[in-house]
Design goal:
By secondary structure, the chain is mainly beta. It has two helices and 70 strands.
Length: 942
């Protein structure tokens, strides 16, 4: 195999690796796809110094290491090495513990003080593009007592350094099961970053067993079509891992489930360290359904490895080697084309009409090929090549139309990589890999085939299917889960039905369910479907779906054809992440005590939810979010995304938040504000940019001087309040705000107390006047909304001129929202006052409506004063004067200061009549404006 031609990305290795003298147990087990360049020494200059502390649980150790066993070796499992070998000193500390969570602290001096230093010596981060274990022999062997183990490790590297970091296989099942820190200048004293990415650790120990039979591997199909897939020969690798020879060792096969079957094979002699392939008698199932295949050897000194179980689904038309649907990785050629194939067998001639294949990544051209087999069981003539398709990550169904007739016997089905970029054909790990089943050839169309066994443990994930009489399926549906929906917004579901069967189908009923609820429908296909025909149905009207609230909705669309021989392909599942309805109540404040409604995109490890000293004076430690620039490599980008805001009605929308940041030395980490108006599909920085700061920008993002410690705000003064004008998005009905972090591998950037609000003056109303006397009255107001910021002062202002402001006489009656009462005193009798409530915030002062109040004078009733006589004649109010009026007005107010009547006065008049028929009896105030003279009187209407 030419290394420059074929690239295998192996992402999973067995957790127990065997040798006769030393056994190696890897714990915790690898979570497929979970890798990190920060969970161990990565060989770069930013990891010149690194410390980590983690826990390996008892449940992860007891299955592989006997109690009271002495551990003699320690190592890490790397997913890939660095681009240049990096050397340095490694110290390893171990401690037995009964803890089930990490509770060993983050102060290095304290946590390491009670542990045993088991290794202090050289360590090399290797060069490798594939997974590799790196082990060291302990200076001080460690006695394992059967519980969990705390593991602490310290790395001090030296130049030359790598420029591409090594990555470590990790387990992510324990929240914050690791604390770590790294530096380019000094060993960190505090392990400030908590992480769920625990490294997979290799523990080596001397083989303690004399009698230890092991079921090393079981070979079966994952899916077997019957009857033409019969007979099925199940095999198992059995190994003697003990130090004594095993005689007459029985290996037992048990099949349970839809079909039962038992068979025993006896191995006469099995020498220490030797493995033997056992082939059981043929299994000929007649029932379809799920089966469990179990192979076992008798009880011995180490029973944890005596049994292995696999699943086997018997069905009517489908082959597969896969166990479940989760791949370990993808395989393909680099800089060349090629073919990958898997072998299958049929006892009768059949018509193949579909092939399901999985890819770990997408975007590459491929074809499906079918080959005959030679008499020796290797690929032979090419029987069929499909059109060229473009791969997508996950399952991909290729329809073969017309079906290809497969003669009885063995045949091969596989993927043809037609481009020179790795096609990433999905595989599962099988170690040791079964021989004479999986082959490759390069270039594509080549006739020299190479068996993957024994060197490459890749079990391909491909499923050829033979045509059935009745077989309908949901081949596609939607809308796509990539579309962002908001609560209350209809999701217009549809599904494409395909007839994979040989019989025509007149009507196919289709239904759907949401989160396992009552099925909706049916909606029937509208045309007769011949073999391989399709028809799309739509769920509308009473069959439509509108999510009532935000959350996760799992929609299953399925066919219900009577007599369908393959129900496995009847259902299509789509998961919709529906956003809550847009926020319409302001101000909106997020203090990150919870992060409901907030999401992240981009690098999943950049934005972290943690605790720090609050920017609020009265609060000490509080929750916040930070961009982990300290631990992420330069160029790592991620976005913290807000809920949706409806800005309708906001006249001056604004965003406030607190930021705390310091770089490591001079690294130019960046924080930017981007927004989306299409429910998060696209984000833009605004025009002009809303917010874009970095360490080197002017003004700088920094709130503190550079420091090499993993930064966590320790004081209120670490923080700075930032304000962002959102006025360019006035009227937006679906605005999302994104805090975009771009790492330069500097130090952490924290945000807290995010606030979206209308940056306006307060909204206040004026209360009607009461208790009016000759020199005082009561009024007040009600602060309905503080506006953009907190109301710091409120009261009423008044003047004898209209539209008073706080520059005129005013009262001060507290702060904040709500109603208040103001008493105005020391006023002039018989005087008109104009009054407004006011409230002041940092934006400015808001005013309520103006009211008019006239103070009383002594002794005015139905009497004469200053040559004026006022009296009532039935429903007429009469005003007479001795001195004729000048041009002016006559106005009448109720006791609340509301104007109820008004008449113009013409010069020369001495008597004015006002119709008061519509007024109720009670106290009123009458104002006479005659030229330059102003007079006010109290009258009682009867």
């Amino acid at each position: 195999m030419k290394k420059t031609v074929l690239l295998f990305a192996l992402f999973c290795v067995p957790f127990l690796l065997f040798s006769q003298a030393i056994l190696t147990h890897m714990a915790p087990t690898y979570t497929s796809g979970a890798t990190s360049g920060n969970s161990g020494p990565n060989g770069t200059s930013s990891h010149t110094y690194m410390r980590g502390s983690t826990i390996v649980l008892a449940s992860e150790l007891i299955t592989g290491i006997p109690t009271n066993t002495t551990i003699t070796k320690f190592g890490f499992m790397l997913n890939a090495g660095a681009n240049t070998a990096a050397t340095g000193n490694l110290k390893v500390y171990l401690l037995n513990t009964t803890s089930t969570t990490y509770a060993n602290g983050s102060d290095w001096a304290t946590l390491s003080a009670g542990m045993t230093l088991v290794y202090d010596g050289a360590y090399t981060v290797p060069v490798s593009t594939t997974p590799i274990g790196v082990d060291v022999t302990l200076n001080t062997p460690f006695l394992y007592t059967g519980d969990g183990i705390y593991v602490a490790y310290q790395w001090s590297g030296s130049a030359p350094f790598a420029t591409t970091a090594a990555s470590y296989q990790c387990n992510v099942s324990l929240t914050n099961g690791l604390v770590r820190s790294n530096s380019s200048t000094a060993l960190p004293a505090t392990l400030a970053t908590a992480s769920s990415y625990r490294p997979c650790i290799r523990f080596g120990f001397n083989n303690p067993y004399t009698n230890d039979g092991v079921v090393l591997q079981v070979y079966t199909l994952g899916k077997l079509p019957i009857p033409f897939g019969n007979p099925h020969a199940i095999q198992a690798y059995i190994k003697n891992q003990g130090s004594d020879t095993l005689f007459s060792l029985p290996a037992t096969l048990n099949v349970t489930g839809a079909q039962t079957f038992t068979n025993v094979k006896t191995i006469d002699t099995l020498l220490p360290g030797v493995s033997k392939l056992v082939t059981f008698d043929n299994f000929n199932p007649t029932n379809i359904g799920a089966n469990t295949v179990t192979v076992s050897v008798p009880s011995d000194q180490n029973n944890i490895n005596n049994t292995m179980t696999k699943s086997l689904e018997t069905n009517l038309n489908t082959y597969s080697y896969a166990q479940g649907t989760t791949p370990a990785g993808g395989v393909g050629f680099n800089s060349a084309t090629g073919d990958f194939v898997a072998k299958f067998t049929t006892t009768t001639s059949q018509a193949m009409n579909q092939v399901d294949v999985r890819f770990s990544t997408g975007g590459q051209p491929f074809q499906i090929g079918i080959w005959s087999a030679t008499v020796t069981g290797t690929p032979d003539a090419l029987l069929y090549t499909s059109p060229t398709y473009t791969s997508t990550a996950g399952a991909y169904t290729v329809l073969i139309d017309p079906p290809v007739i497969i003669p009885a016997g063995s045949f091969f089905v596989g993927v043809r990589q037609t481009g020179t970029t790795n096609v990433s054909f999905s595989y599962q790990t099988e170690n040791p890999i079964r021989p004479n089943c999986f082959f490759y050839a390069s270039p594509s169309g080549g006739t020299v085939w190479t068996d993957f066994a024994p060197a490459n443990a890749f079990r391909f994930m491909i499923e050829p299917k033979f045509a059935l009489a009745n077989d309908v399926s949901i081949s596609a549906g939607g809308p796509s889960s990539d579309i962002v929906y908001v609560a209350g917004q209809p999701i217009n579901l549809y599904a494409t039905v395909i007839n994979y069967g040989m019989n025509a189908q007149t009507t196919v009923p289709v239904k759907y369910s949401v989160n396992g609820g009552t099925p909706v429908g049916p909606v029937n296909t509208t045309v007769s479907l011949s073999s391989n025909d399709t028809n799309t149905v739509f769920f509308t009207g009473t069959n439509g779906f509108t999510p009532p609230s935000g959350g996760i909705y799992t929609v299953k669309i399925f066919t219900q054809l009577t007599g369908d021989q393959n129900v496995a392909n009847d259902t299509l599942t789509i998961v919709y992440n529906v956003l809550p309805e847009p926020i319409t109540t302001y101000p909106y404040v997020q203090n990150f005590n919870t992060i409901e409604g907030w999401t992240t995109s981009g690098a999943s490890n950049l934005w972290v939810y943690a605790s720090a000293h609050s920017p609020i004076e009265a609060v000490a430690i509080d929750s916040a979010m930070f961009a982990d620039f300290f631990s992420t490599t330069a160029g790592t980008t991620g976005m913290l995304r807000s809920p949706i805001f409806n800005l309708t009605g906001l006249t001056n929308p604004k965003l406030d938040f607190y930021v705390a940041y310091r770089t490591y030395a001079t690294e130019d980490d960046s924080l930017q504000i981007w927004v989306s108006t299409d429910l998060g599909v696209t984000f833009v920085p605004g025009s002009p940019n809303l917010y874009k700061k970095s360490y080197s920008s002017n003004p700088s993002l920094s709130t503190m001087d550079p420091n090499i410690a993993d930064y966590v705000p320790a004081n209120t003064t670490d923080w700075r309040l930032e304000s962002v004008d959102l006025s360019q998005f006035i009227g937006a009905t679906s605005l999302m705000i994104g805090f975009k972090g771009i790492s330069a591998n500097g130090n952490n950037c924290w945000i807290d107390q995010v606030k979206v609000y209308d940056n306006i003056t307060p909204i206040v109303t004026t209360t009607a006047a009461t208790a009016i006397t000759q020199n005082s009255f009561e009024t007040g107001g009600n602060v309905i909304s503080e506006g953009g910021t907190s109301v710091t002062q409120r009261g009423v202002c008044y003047s004898t001129s209209e539209n008073p402001t706080i520059l005129d006489p005013h009262t001060t009656d507290g702060a904040g929202v709500g109603s208040f009462t103001s008493t105005l005193s020391s006023l002039t009798q018989n005087t008109i006052y104009y009054v407004k409530a006011y409230a002041t915030n940092s934006v400015g002062t808001g005013y309520g409506d103006q009211i008019v109040v006239t103070t009383l004078i002594d002794g005015i009733d139905e009497a004469t004063n200053q040559g004026v006589k006022i009296y009532q004649m039935d429903k007429i109010l009469v005003v007479e004067t001795i001195i004729p009026f000048e041009d002016g007005s006559l106005t009448l107010y109720d006791v609340n200061g509301k104007l109820v009547k008004s008449l113009s006065v013409t010069a020369g008049q001495t008597k004015i009549s006002m119709n008061i028929d519509e007024l109720v009896h009670g106290l009123y105030l009458i104002n006479i404006n005659s030229g330059s003279q102003k007079m006010g009187y109290k009258v009682i209407l009867k």
